[in-house]
Amino acid sequence: MDGNNDAVCDDRISKLPEPILHHILSFLHAKDAARMSTLSKVWDSTWNSLPYLDFGDIFDWSINLNVVIDQTLANRKKHKSSMQKFSLCLRHYAGLCNVGNWIKIRIACNIKELNLRVERHDYQGNFVYGSLPEAILAAKSLNVLNLFGFNIELPAYDGTINLSSLQELHLSFVFLDEQFIKAMCTSCCNLEHLSLQYFNGLTSFQVGDTLPKLKKIDLVTLEPPHSVLQLVDIAAINLEDLWINNLYGSTNVVRITACKALKSLYLRGVDVTSNWLEELFYSLQNLVKFELIRCKNQKTMKIASDRLKQLRVVDCHNLISA
Amino acid sequence: MITLQSSDKDVFEIEQSILIQSGTIKNMVEDDFTFIPLPSVDTETLIKIIEYMKKHADKTDSKEKNIKEFDKDFMKKTLNELFALVFAANYLHISSLLELLYPSIADRIKDKITEAIRQIFSIRCDFTPEEERRIIMDNKWAHEGTEIEGTLD
Fold it and tell me: How far is CA A17 from the centre of its chain?
Protein backbone atom coordinates (compact mmCIF):
# COMPACT_ATOMS: atom_id res chain seq x y z
CA MET A 1 0.00 0.00 0.00
CA ASP A 2 1.25 3.54 -0.56
CA GLY A 3 2.20 5.90 2.25
CA ASN A 4 -1.20 7.59 2.16
CA ASN A 5 -2.45 8.05 5.72
CA ASP A 6 -5.92 7.25 4.58
CA ALA A 7 -5.30 3.79 3.13
CA VAL A 8 -6.27 0.82 5.23
CA CYS A 9 -4.62 -2.56 5.27
CA ASP A 10 -7.64 -4.75 5.02
CA ASP A 11 -11.23 -4.28 4.05
CA ARG A 12 -12.59 -3.31 7.44
CA ILE A 13 -15.40 -1.12 6.18
CA SER A 14 -17.23 -3.97 4.47
CA LYS A 15 -17.34 -5.86 7.75
CA LEU A 16 -19.47 -3.21 9.41
CA PRO A 17 -23.08 -4.23 10.04
CA GLU A 18 -25.45 -3.25 7.21
CA PRO A 19 -27.42 -0.68 9.25
CA ILE A 20 -24.17 1.21 9.86
CA LEU A 21 -23.24 1.08 6.18
CA HIS A 22 -26.72 2.45 5.43
CA HIS A 23 -26.18 5.31 7.84
CA ILE A 24 -22.84 6.15 6.22
CA LEU A 25 -24.33 6.05 2.72
CA SER A 26 -27.24 8.22 3.86
CA PHE A 27 -24.82 11.15 3.91
CA LEU A 28 -23.98 10.71 0.23
CA HIS A 29 -25.92 11.75 -2.85
CA ALA A 30 -27.62 8.89 -4.61
CA LYS A 31 -25.03 9.04 -7.39
CA ASP A 32 -22.07 8.43 -5.08
CA ALA A 33 -23.96 5.77 -3.16
CA ALA A 34 -25.02 3.97 -6.35
CA ARG A 35 -21.44 3.81 -7.58
CA MET A 36 -20.51 1.85 -4.47
CA SER A 37 -22.53 -1.06 -5.85
CA THR A 38 -19.74 -1.99 -8.25
CA LEU A 39 -17.20 -2.50 -5.51
CA SER A 40 -18.27 -5.88 -4.18
CA LYS A 41 -21.31 -8.05 -3.47
CA VAL A 42 -21.66 -6.59 0.02
CA TRP A 43 -21.83 -3.08 -1.40
CA ASP A 44 -24.22 -4.04 -4.19
CA SER A 45 -26.59 -5.42 -1.59
CA THR A 46 -26.09 -2.38 0.64
CA TRP A 47 -26.97 0.03 -2.17
CA ASN A 48 -30.04 -1.95 -3.23
CA SER A 49 -31.38 -2.07 0.29
CA LEU A 50 -30.50 1.55 1.12
CA PRO A 51 -33.61 3.07 2.62
CA TYR A 52 -32.40 6.65 2.14
CA LEU A 53 -32.27 8.24 -1.28
CA ASP A 54 -31.02 11.76 -1.76
CA PHE A 55 -31.05 12.85 -5.37
CA GLY A 56 -29.96 16.28 -4.21
CA ASP A 57 -29.81 19.15 -6.57
CA ILE A 58 -30.55 18.16 -10.12
CA PHE A 59 -29.75 20.78 -12.62
CA ASP A 60 -26.67 19.54 -14.32
CA TRP A 61 -27.65 16.01 -15.03
CA SER A 62 -27.85 15.32 -18.71
CA ILE A 63 -29.49 11.98 -18.14
CA ASN A 64 -33.18 11.34 -18.07
CA LEU A 65 -34.24 11.71 -14.47
CA ASN A 66 -37.35 9.61 -15.02
CA VAL A 67 -35.29 6.63 -16.08
CA VAL A 68 -32.94 6.97 -13.15
CA ILE A 69 -35.58 7.09 -10.50
CA ASP A 70 -37.76 4.44 -12.16
CA GLN A 71 -34.77 2.14 -12.24
CA THR A 72 -33.82 2.81 -8.64
CA LEU A 73 -37.36 2.19 -7.46
CA ALA A 74 -37.70 -0.99 -9.49
CA ASN A 75 -34.53 -2.28 -7.88
CA ARG A 76 -35.85 -1.59 -4.46
CA LYS A 77 -39.11 -3.29 -5.19
CA LYS A 78 -37.19 -6.31 -6.45
CA HIS A 79 -35.20 -6.44 -3.23
CA LYS A 80 -38.26 -5.66 -1.13
CA SER A 81 -36.41 -2.89 0.70
CA SER A 82 -38.30 -0.34 2.73
CA MET A 83 -37.84 3.30 1.85
CA GLN A 84 -37.35 5.62 4.76
CA LYS A 85 -36.17 8.89 3.33
CA PHE A 86 -36.30 10.45 -0.09
CA SER A 87 -34.95 13.87 -1.12
CA LEU A 88 -35.16 15.53 -4.47
CA CYS A 89 -34.54 19.04 -5.68
CA LEU A 90 -35.63 19.95 -9.21
CA ARG A 91 -34.45 23.24 -10.58
CA HIS A 92 -36.54 22.84 -13.67
CA TYR A 93 -40.11 21.83 -13.46
CA ALA A 94 -40.14 19.44 -16.34
CA GLY A 95 -39.40 16.29 -14.40
CA LEU A 96 -42.14 16.84 -11.89
CA CYS A 97 -44.97 15.06 -13.69
CA ASN A 98 -43.50 11.70 -12.77
CA VAL A 99 -43.04 12.64 -9.17
CA GLY A 100 -46.66 11.73 -8.49
CA ASN A 101 -45.99 8.13 -9.46
CA TRP A 102 -42.79 7.92 -7.53
CA ILE A 103 -44.53 9.27 -4.46
CA LYS A 104 -47.18 6.57 -4.72
CA ILE A 105 -44.47 3.92 -4.76
CA ARG A 106 -42.75 5.56 -1.81
CA ILE A 107 -45.93 5.51 0.17
CA ALA A 108 -46.41 1.88 -0.61
CA CYS A 109 -42.99 1.38 0.96
CA ASN A 110 -43.97 3.33 4.08
CA ILE A 111 -41.62 6.21 3.66
CA LYS A 112 -40.80 8.23 6.78
CA GLU A 113 -39.19 11.39 5.46
CA LEU A 114 -39.75 13.27 2.23
CA ASN A 115 -37.90 16.38 1.04
CA LEU A 116 -39.05 17.88 -2.25
CA ARG A 117 -37.91 21.12 -3.73
CA VAL A 118 -38.84 22.73 -7.04
CA GLU A 119 -37.69 26.03 -8.41
CA ARG A 120 -39.47 27.15 -11.50
CA HIS A 121 -39.48 30.51 -13.19
CA ASP A 122 -41.56 31.82 -16.06
CA TYR A 123 -40.05 33.52 -19.09
CA GLN A 124 -39.98 36.82 -17.25
CA GLY A 125 -37.97 35.32 -14.45
CA ASN A 126 -40.81 35.32 -11.92
CA PHE A 127 -41.07 32.49 -9.45
CA VAL A 128 -43.85 30.03 -10.28
CA TYR A 129 -45.23 27.56 -7.77
CA GLY A 130 -45.14 23.88 -8.69
CA SER A 131 -48.21 21.73 -8.40
CA LEU A 132 -48.05 19.31 -5.49
CA PRO A 133 -48.73 15.63 -6.19
CA GLU A 134 -51.88 14.81 -4.22
CA ALA A 135 -50.49 11.50 -3.02
CA ILE A 136 -48.14 13.33 -0.67
CA LEU A 137 -51.03 14.58 1.43
CA ALA A 138 -52.16 11.01 1.98
CA ALA A 139 -48.82 9.60 3.09
CA LYS A 140 -49.83 8.39 6.50
CA SER A 141 -46.44 6.91 7.37
CA LEU A 142 -44.57 10.21 6.95
CA ASN A 143 -42.86 11.62 10.03
CA VAL A 144 -41.08 14.54 8.37
CA LEU A 145 -42.18 16.51 5.33
CA ASN A 146 -40.17 19.32 3.76
CA LEU A 147 -41.64 21.13 0.76
CA PHE A 148 -40.19 24.08 -1.15
CA GLY A 149 -41.73 25.93 -4.05
CA PHE A 150 -45.18 24.32 -4.19
CA ASN A 151 -48.76 25.45 -4.44
CA ILE A 152 -50.35 23.52 -1.59
CA GLU A 153 -53.93 22.62 -2.38
CA LEU A 154 -56.26 20.17 -0.74
CA PRO A 155 -57.09 17.07 -2.81
CA ALA A 156 -59.93 17.73 -5.19
CA TYR A 157 -61.87 14.56 -4.41
CA ASP A 158 -62.54 14.98 -0.70
CA GLY A 159 -60.55 17.93 0.55
CA THR A 160 -58.98 16.05 3.44
CA ILE A 161 -55.42 15.15 4.20
CA ASN A 162 -54.12 12.09 5.98
CA LEU A 163 -50.79 12.83 7.58
CA SER A 164 -51.53 11.34 10.96
CA SER A 165 -47.92 10.33 11.74
CA LEU A 166 -46.43 13.68 10.78
CA GLN A 167 -44.15 15.13 13.45
CA GLU A 168 -42.45 17.89 11.50
CA LEU A 169 -43.81 20.00 8.68
CA HIS A 170 -41.54 22.52 6.96
CA LEU A 171 -43.01 24.58 4.13
CA SER A 172 -40.94 27.26 2.35
CA PHE A 173 -41.85 29.47 -0.58
CA VAL A 174 -45.28 27.91 -0.79
CA PHE A 175 -48.71 29.19 -1.61
CA LEU A 176 -51.37 27.98 0.80
CA ASP A 177 -54.64 29.08 2.33
CA GLU A 178 -56.64 28.84 5.53
CA GLN A 179 -58.38 25.65 4.35
CA PHE A 180 -55.11 23.81 4.32
CA ILE A 181 -54.20 24.98 7.82
CA LYS A 182 -57.61 23.87 9.04
CA ALA A 183 -57.22 20.43 7.43
CA MET A 184 -53.74 20.16 8.93
CA CYS A 185 -55.10 20.91 12.39
CA THR A 186 -57.63 18.12 12.01
CA SER A 187 -55.32 15.47 10.60
CA CYS A 188 -51.82 16.00 11.99
CA CYS A 189 -52.46 15.05 15.59
CA ASN A 190 -48.81 14.08 16.17
CA LEU A 191 -47.34 17.32 14.88
CA GLU A 192 -44.52 18.70 17.03
CA HIS A 193 -42.88 21.33 14.84
CA LEU A 194 -44.50 23.53 12.20
CA SER A 195 -42.45 25.89 10.09
CA LEU A 196 -43.98 28.19 7.45
CA GLN A 197 -41.39 30.37 5.77
CA TYR A 198 -41.82 32.90 3.00
CA PHE A 199 -45.36 31.78 2.39
CA ASN A 200 -48.01 33.49 0.33
CA GLY A 201 -51.80 33.34 0.28
CA LEU A 202 -52.44 33.07 3.99
CA THR A 203 -53.77 36.22 5.65
CA SER A 204 -54.77 34.70 8.94
CA PHE A 205 -53.03 31.91 10.81
CA GLN A 206 -55.25 30.06 13.26
CA VAL A 207 -54.38 26.98 15.22
CA GLY A 208 -56.72 25.69 17.89
CA ASP A 209 -56.21 23.14 20.61
CA THR A 210 -56.39 20.08 18.35
CA LEU A 211 -52.62 19.65 18.19
CA PRO A 212 -51.59 18.52 21.68
CA LYS A 213 -48.00 17.68 20.76
CA LEU A 214 -47.22 20.94 18.98
CA LYS A 215 -44.17 22.46 20.64
CA LYS A 216 -42.67 24.84 18.10
CA ILE A 217 -44.02 27.19 15.42
CA ASP A 218 -41.95 29.35 13.04
CA LEU A 219 -43.64 31.89 10.78
CA VAL A 220 -41.67 34.04 8.35
CA THR A 221 -43.54 36.23 5.89
CA LEU A 222 -42.65 37.55 2.47
CA GLU A 223 -42.44 41.18 1.49
CA PRO A 224 -45.38 43.02 -0.06
CA PRO A 225 -47.07 42.83 -2.54
CA HIS A 226 -47.41 39.25 -1.33
CA SER A 227 -50.13 38.64 1.20
CA VAL A 228 -49.67 40.18 4.58
CA LEU A 229 -50.37 38.15 7.67
CA GLN A 230 -52.98 40.18 9.50
CA LEU A 231 -54.11 37.81 12.21
CA VAL A 232 -52.40 35.20 14.29
CA ASP A 233 -54.52 33.21 16.71
CA ILE A 234 -52.91 30.25 18.41
CA ALA A 235 -54.33 28.18 21.24
CA ALA A 236 -51.90 25.26 21.31
CA ILE A 237 -51.66 24.47 24.99
CA ASN A 238 -48.28 22.74 24.88
CA LEU A 239 -46.55 25.21 22.60
CA GLU A 240 -43.13 26.18 23.99
CA ASP A 241 -41.46 28.12 21.22
CA LEU A 242 -43.08 30.71 18.93
CA TRP A 243 -41.29 32.73 16.27
CA ILE A 244 -43.16 35.30 14.19
CA ASN A 245 -40.96 37.14 11.74
CA ASN A 246 -42.42 39.78 9.47
CA LEU A 247 -39.47 40.90 7.43
CA TYR A 248 -41.57 43.70 6.02
CA GLY A 249 -45.04 44.87 6.93
CA SER A 250 -46.61 43.99 10.24
CA THR A 251 -49.27 41.91 11.87
CA ASN A 252 -51.93 43.73 13.82
CA VAL A 253 -53.66 41.07 15.80
CA VAL A 254 -51.82 38.38 17.71
CA ARG A 255 -53.72 36.21 20.17
CA ILE A 256 -51.54 33.77 22.02
CA THR A 257 -52.51 34.03 25.65
CA ALA A 258 -53.93 30.50 25.60
CA CYS A 259 -50.47 29.04 25.00
CA LYS A 260 -49.80 28.56 28.67
CA ALA A 261 -46.67 26.48 28.21
CA LEU A 262 -44.89 29.10 26.10
CA LYS A 263 -41.26 29.58 27.14
CA SER A 264 -39.72 31.51 24.26
CA LEU A 265 -41.32 34.22 22.10
CA TYR A 266 -39.84 36.15 19.17
CA LEU A 267 -41.92 38.85 17.53
CA ARG A 268 -40.73 40.97 14.67
CA GLY A 269 -43.03 43.39 12.92
CA VAL A 270 -45.90 42.87 15.32
CA ASP A 271 -47.65 45.96 16.60
CA VAL A 272 -48.08 45.39 20.31
CA THR A 273 -49.62 47.70 22.87
CA SER A 274 -48.89 48.14 26.54
CA ASN A 275 -52.11 46.40 27.44
CA TRP A 276 -51.26 43.50 25.19
CA LEU A 277 -47.88 43.13 26.87
CA GLU A 278 -49.39 43.29 30.32
CA GLU A 279 -51.87 40.58 29.44
CA LEU A 280 -49.12 38.51 27.88
CA PHE A 281 -46.93 38.44 30.96
CA TYR A 282 -49.91 37.83 33.17
CA SER A 283 -51.19 34.87 31.16
CA LEU A 284 -47.91 33.26 30.16
CA GLN A 285 -46.38 32.27 33.46
CA ASN A 286 -43.71 30.10 31.84
CA LEU A 287 -42.23 32.74 29.54
CA VAL A 288 -38.49 33.08 30.10
CA LYS A 289 -37.30 34.52 26.79
CA PHE A 290 -38.86 37.42 24.89
CA GLU A 291 -37.60 39.28 21.85
CA LEU A 292 -39.41 42.20 20.27
CA ILE A 293 -38.08 43.67 17.05
CA ARG A 294 -39.35 46.56 14.97
CA CYS A 295 -42.53 47.51 16.75
CA LYS A 296 -43.53 50.93 15.54
CA ASN A 297 -46.43 52.10 17.60
CA GLN A 298 -45.42 52.24 21.14
CA LYS A 299 -44.23 55.29 22.90
CA THR A 300 -44.12 53.70 26.28
CA MET A 301 -43.89 50.10 27.06
CA LYS A 302 -43.87 48.36 30.34
CA ILE A 303 -42.24 45.00 30.44
CA ALA A 304 -42.40 43.48 33.84
CA SER A 305 -41.93 39.89 34.69
CA ASP A 306 -39.97 38.24 37.42
CA ARG A 307 -39.60 35.02 35.47
CA LEU A 308 -38.12 36.54 32.34
CA LYS A 309 -34.47 35.51 31.93
CA GLN A 310 -33.77 37.00 28.49
CA LEU A 311 -35.20 40.18 27.05
CA ARG A 312 -34.26 41.84 23.81
CA VAL A 313 -35.96 44.92 22.34
CA VAL A 314 -34.64 46.23 19.06
CA ASP A 315 -35.54 48.95 16.63
CA CYS A 316 -38.77 50.10 18.22
CA HIS A 317 -39.06 53.65 17.00
CA ASN A 318 -41.00 56.12 19.08
CA LEU A 319 -40.17 54.22 22.17
CA ILE A 320 -39.63 56.76 24.87
CA SER A 321 -39.63 54.68 27.96
CA ALA A 322 -39.77 51.03 28.77
CA MET B 1 -16.49 4.13 40.04
CA ILE B 2 -16.65 1.50 37.30
CA THR B 3 -13.69 -0.49 36.01
CA LEU B 4 -13.39 -1.13 32.27
CA GLN B 5 -10.99 -3.70 30.86
CA SER B 6 -9.82 -3.53 27.24
CA SER B 7 -9.04 -6.52 25.02
CA ASP B 8 -5.34 -5.90 25.82
CA LYS B 9 -6.22 -6.37 29.52
CA ASP B 10 -5.56 -2.74 30.48
CA VAL B 11 -7.93 -1.41 33.14
CA PHE B 12 -9.48 2.04 33.50
CA GLU B 13 -11.44 3.37 36.47
CA ILE B 14 -14.07 5.92 35.44
CA GLU B 15 -17.01 7.62 37.20
CA GLN B 16 -20.36 6.02 36.51
CA SER B 17 -21.89 9.38 35.56
CA ILE B 18 -19.57 9.65 32.56
CA LEU B 19 -19.99 6.06 31.38
CA ILE B 20 -23.77 6.00 31.21
CA GLN B 21 -23.52 7.71 27.82
CA SER B 22 -22.88 4.16 26.64
CA GLY B 23 -26.17 2.28 26.51
CA THR B 24 -24.38 -1.03 26.91
CA ILE B 25 -22.46 0.05 30.01
CA LYS B 26 -25.56 1.71 31.46
CA ASN B 27 -27.43 -1.59 31.30
CA MET B 28 -24.62 -3.46 32.99
CA VAL B 29 -24.34 -0.86 35.73
CA GLU B 30 -28.08 -1.16 36.34
CA ASP B 31 -27.49 -4.89 36.81
CA ASP B 32 -24.92 -3.98 39.47
CA PHE B 33 -21.75 -4.79 37.53
CA THR B 34 -18.74 -2.70 38.59
CA PHE B 35 -16.13 -4.55 36.53
CA ILE B 36 -16.87 -4.57 32.80
CA PRO B 37 -14.62 -6.49 30.40
CA LEU B 38 -14.68 -5.26 26.79
CA PRO B 39 -13.04 -8.03 24.75
CA SER B 40 -13.82 -6.35 21.42
CA VAL B 41 -12.31 -2.93 22.24
CA ASP B 42 -8.52 -2.51 22.27
CA THR B 43 -6.72 -0.10 24.63
CA GLU B 44 -5.97 2.58 22.05
CA THR B 45 -9.64 2.78 21.00
CA LEU B 46 -10.92 2.60 24.57
CA ILE B 47 -8.75 5.56 25.57
CA LYS B 48 -10.32 7.60 22.74
CA ILE B 49 -13.84 6.52 23.69
CA ILE B 50 -13.25 7.53 27.31
CA GLU B 51 -11.85 10.88 26.13
CA TYR B 52 -15.02 11.43 24.07
CA MET B 53 -17.38 10.51 26.89
CA LYS B 54 -15.52 12.70 29.39
CA LYS B 55 -15.83 15.72 27.10
CA HIS B 56 -19.52 15.06 26.42
CA ALA B 57 -20.45 14.39 30.04
CA ASP B 58 -20.82 18.10 30.80
CA LYS B 59 -23.38 19.38 28.35
CA THR B 60 -24.17 22.81 29.78
CA ASP B 61 -24.88 25.62 27.33
CA SER B 62 -21.56 27.35 27.86
CA LYS B 63 -19.60 24.26 26.96
CA GLU B 64 -21.48 23.70 23.69
CA LYS B 65 -19.07 25.62 21.46
CA ASN B 66 -16.17 23.94 23.17
CA ILE B 67 -17.69 20.52 22.52
CA LYS B 68 -18.26 21.30 18.83
CA GLU B 69 -14.60 22.26 18.42
CA PHE B 70 -13.57 19.09 20.19
CA ASP B 71 -15.80 16.95 17.96
CA LYS B 72 -14.31 18.51 14.83
CA ASP B 73 -10.79 17.75 15.98
CA PHE B 74 -11.75 14.34 17.27
CA MET B 75 -12.77 13.26 13.77
CA LYS B 76 -9.36 14.12 12.32
CA LYS B 77 -8.14 10.57 12.49
CA THR B 78 -6.98 7.93 10.05
CA LEU B 79 -9.57 5.66 8.52
CA ASN B 80 -8.30 2.71 10.57
CA GLU B 81 -8.90 4.69 13.74
CA LEU B 82 -12.37 5.75 12.57
CA PHE B 83 -13.37 2.16 11.82
CA ALA B 84 -12.15 1.00 15.22
CA LEU B 85 -14.25 3.76 16.76
CA VAL B 86 -17.35 2.79 14.77
CA PHE B 87 -17.13 -0.85 15.84
CA ALA B 88 -16.61 0.19 19.46
CA ALA B 89 -19.30 2.87 19.48
CA ASN B 90 -21.73 0.43 17.90
CA TYR B 91 -20.99 -2.25 20.49
CA LEU B 92 -21.17 0.26 23.34
CA HIS B 93 -24.30 1.96 21.95
CA ILE B 94 -22.96 5.52 22.03
CA SER B 95 -25.31 7.06 19.48
CA SER B 96 -23.92 10.62 19.60
CA LEU B 97 -20.47 9.33 18.63
CA LEU B 98 -21.91 7.22 15.81
CA GLU B 99 -23.78 10.27 14.48
CA LEU B 100 -20.41 12.04 14.24
CA LEU B 101 -18.63 9.11 12.65
CA TYR B 102 -21.11 8.45 9.83
CA PRO B 103 -20.65 11.75 7.96
CA SER B 104 -16.90 11.73 8.67
CA ILE B 105 -16.52 8.39 6.92
CA ALA B 106 -18.94 9.44 4.16
CA ASP B 107 -16.69 12.45 3.51
CA ARG B 108 -13.85 10.11 2.64
CA ILE B 109 -16.06 8.47 0.00
CA LYS B 110 -17.73 11.57 -1.43
CA ASP B 111 -16.95 12.50 -5.04
CA LYS B 112 -14.22 9.92 -5.42
CA ILE B 113 -14.11 7.63 -8.42
CA THR B 114 -14.75 3.96 -7.76
CA GLU B 115 -11.16 2.90 -8.27
CA ALA B 116 -9.93 5.40 -5.69
CA ILE B 117 -12.47 4.14 -3.15
CA ARG B 118 -11.47 0.54 -3.85
CA GLN B 119 -7.84 1.39 -3.15
CA ILE B 120 -8.41 3.49 -0.09
CA PHE B 121 -10.68 0.96 1.58
CA SER B 122 -8.96 -2.13 0.18
CA ILE B 123 -12.23 -3.53 -1.09
CA ARG B 124 -11.71 -6.64 -3.12
CA CYS B 125 -13.93 -7.19 -6.10
CA ASP B 126 -15.74 -10.53 -5.84
CA PHE B 127 -17.77 -10.27 -9.02
CA THR B 128 -17.28 -12.30 -12.15
CA PRO B 129 -16.67 -10.09 -15.22
CA GLU B 130 -20.28 -10.67 -16.38
CA GLU B 131 -21.70 -9.76 -12.97
CA GLU B 132 -19.62 -6.62 -12.86
CA ARG B 133 -20.75 -5.54 -16.32
CA ARG B 134 -24.41 -6.11 -15.36
CA ILE B 135 -24.11 -4.07 -12.19
CA ILE B 136 -22.49 -1.19 -14.01
CA MET B 137 -25.34 -1.27 -16.57
CA ASP B 138 -27.97 -1.41 -13.83
CA ASN B 139 -26.66 1.82 -12.39
CA LYS B 140 -25.36 3.35 -15.60
CA TRP B 141 -26.61 6.82 -14.69
CA ALA B 142 -24.39 6.92 -11.62
CA HIS B 143 -21.26 6.24 -13.62
CA GLU B 144 -21.78 8.82 -16.32
CA GLY B 145 -19.29 11.64 -16.02
CA THR B 146 -16.83 9.44 -14.16
CA GLU B 147 -14.41 6.83 -15.38
CA ILE B 148 -15.86 3.36 -15.51
CA GLU B 149 -13.48 0.68 -14.33
CA GLY B 150 -11.77 -1.17 -17.11
CA THR B 151 -9.85 -3.61 -14.96
CA LEU B 152 -11.50 -6.70 -13.60
CA ASP B 153 -9.79 -8.89 -11.05
Answer: 32
